[in-house]
Amino acid sequence: MKYLRAYIESMIEIDEEEWQTVTELFTKKEYKKGDELFTAGEICQKLYYVSSGITRIYSISTEGKDLTWALNYNKNGYQLDPFCGDYVSYLTQTQSSFFAEALEDCTVYEADFVALDKYYESGLKWMTLARRISDAQLVIIAQRTQMLKRLTAKEKYLLMKELAPVYEEVLPDYQYATVLGITPQSLSRIKRGV
User: Fold this and answer.
1) What is the pLDDT of residues 141-152, one digit of tens each?
2) What contacts 15, CB < 8 A, 6 or more positions away?
């Protein structure tokens, strides 16, 4: 959980006693490749911190199309959005539209959203952490929305290649194309032309 601590300490200062309290909120769990962390149709009750490995958040469209939304990646000291969970499902107490699956064997620390909320309410420091985490997620969502709306398919591909090359390395082209909001055929043409 050293990466989790580093993540928290990048936002607020904590001492050993506070860190011990944080670790007590999380339970370690091992997932095998292909295991589901959570599934659509249920209210998401947990936040998942991917300590090692890769998970994928995806949904199934009304036409039955598999749509990849995000990777949660933590390998060899490199992290890319290591938290997963459907916070909107929890906040609204509605069924999640998302699935989360392990793309390889993973070590994951799970925390109950209710317990986290109570801890955030225990003091200004923790409220600040919660706000900063929310702010960071809002920025990611806004940037992704802007990217999908204003960039050409080639510009999206080049930007993702620069900012998050693990997506292309990890996902098959048909899943990677859904992240970019383009067709697999467009992705193939772009890759041939680059």
Assistant:
1) 888 888 888 999
2) none
* pLDDT tens profile 3-29: 889 889 999 999 999 999 999 999 999
Answer yes or no: are the C-beta atoms of 67 and 61 closer than 8 Å: yes
What are the residues whose beta carbons fall under 8 Å from the beta carbon of 147, sequence distance 6 or more? 156, 159
Spatial separation of the C-alpha atoms in residues 47 and 114, rounded to whole Å: 10
Nearest 5°: CA angle at 85, between 84 and 88? 130
Match 């697999």 to its residue by tokens: 184
Polymer length of the chain: 194
CA distance 191 to 43: 39
Beta strands in the chain (DSSP E): 26-31, 36-38, 46-60, 66-75, 78-80, 83-84, 99-102, 106-112
* Beta strand 106-112 pairing with 78-80: unpaired
Q: May I ask the CATH class of domain 2-150? A: mainly beta
Q: Which among 145, 153, 119, 146 is positioned nearest to 133, based on CA atoms?
A: 119
